[in-house]
Specification:
341 residues, alpha/beta, three-stranded antiparallel beta sheet, 15 helices, 60% helix, 8% strand
């Protein structure tokens, strides 16, 4: 039945599956590409005459699958790119709410962008967790549309081409697997469901373990505001990555923008001074990690800000704008200076 369905509706199925995956639905399209490639090859050889086989295999159907998948990927990716450009960190926050690794998903994407820039789009579809998030990150960090389109199209062609080629090369094995699936269909489905449940359980446990490790007292925004009006005020530290600051170029007034050389920035600060770290990530993960590291370096009074920058903004408190300097060569923008400095 599956074979007949793909033979009859192969291209529409590929288009729909790829588009839905690129829009963020958990419907992996790579198996569909491989399966469609394998069934296309098998069907072509089965219907070919001896003379046709002697003259070589017709590549047209396989090329059509690759082109269809690439077009679908570009449509979905372009939508996320413009949403990232228009709404920035709000789009990333929404996508992370749909992720099991919601506390670290954006940071991972920013790590890749910080190291490779827009070029990461050429291979991002092969990296779990990065394939969807990389696109709005590209839009939010100011990547030019031309650069995005070039590398995303290259990545879509590479990804779909490898998927289809894998299925075509191993068409015989896929045929045997489909025959086996026809015999033991329910058992295979049960195994797949159990494997998926185990995977989700492991990822959930990893997140719970991370949050337990970072469990510590937080300070809320009302308390921070009161402390800032007192003497001596606490030192507020913005621990967001420069790419996150570029997407949301505002900071709590007077905050120290932590950079790569954090040791030199904190060298002259008394170890008993009150420090408050903040970020804009779920569960204050980055702020808590920074607080733990500061405590390990001898600071005795450190607390993450509950709710981070979003809570401060939601309360209507003042924010300092940051001057953003566009990075060269399509890399993510960098922070130049704070207007309050």
């Amino acid at each position: 039945m599956l074979r007949e369905l793909i033979i009859e509706y192969g291209l529409p199925l590929v288009f729909a599956n790829v588009l839905l995956e690129c829009l963020g639905l958990p419907l992996p399209a790579l198996p569909t590409l491989a399966l469609t490639g394998a069934i296309t090859v098998s069907a072509s050889f089965a219907s070919a005459s001896v003379a046709g086989l002697a003259s070589g295999f017709a590549w047209g159907p396989l090329v059509a699958i690759v082109v269809t998948a690439s077009v679908a990927a570009l449509i979905g990716d372009t939508l996320w790119f413009w949403l990232g450009r228009r709404y920035g960190s709000r789009v990333l926050g929404f996508m992370c709410k749909l992720s099991i690794s919601r506390d670290t998903c954006v940071n991972r994407s920013l790590d890749f962008f910080g190291r490779f820039g827009v070029r990461i789009l050429a291979v991002s579809k092969f990296i779990p967790g990065l394939s969807t998030l990389a696109i709005p990150v590209a839009g939010a960090t100011g990547i030019g549309f031309g650069s995005f389109l070039l590398y995303d199209a290259l990545g879509a062609l590479l990804w779909s081409g490898i998927g289809v080629a894998f299925g075509a090369i191993f068409a015989d094995l896929v045929d045997r697997a489909l025959a086996w699936l026809d015999l033991f269909g329910r058992g295979v489905v049960a195994i797949a469901v159990v494997a998926l449940a185990l995977y989700l359980a492991v990822r959930w446990w990893q997140r719970v373990s991370l949050l337990r490790r970072l469990r510590m007292a937080r300070i809320d925004i009302a308390m921070l505001r009161a402390l800032l009006e007192g003497e001596p005020p606490p030192l507020v530290i913005d621990v967001r990555r420069r790419e996150r600051r570029a997407m949301d170029p505002f900071a709590i007034p007077g905050a120290l923008l932590l950079h790569d050389d954090a040791a030199s920035q904190l060298a002259g600060i008394a170890r008993d001074r009150k420090l408050v770290t903040y970020c804009d990530c779920p569960s204050e993960v980055s702020a808590a990690l920074a607080a733990k590291e500061l405590i390990a370096h001898g600071f005795t009074d450190v607390a993450p800000l509950l709710g981070g920058l979003a809570a401060w903004r939601a309360a209507g408190y003042a924010l300092d704008p940051l001057m953003i300097e566009d990075a060269a060569n399509g890399a993510a923008p960098a922070i130049a200076k704070s207007s309050s400095a």
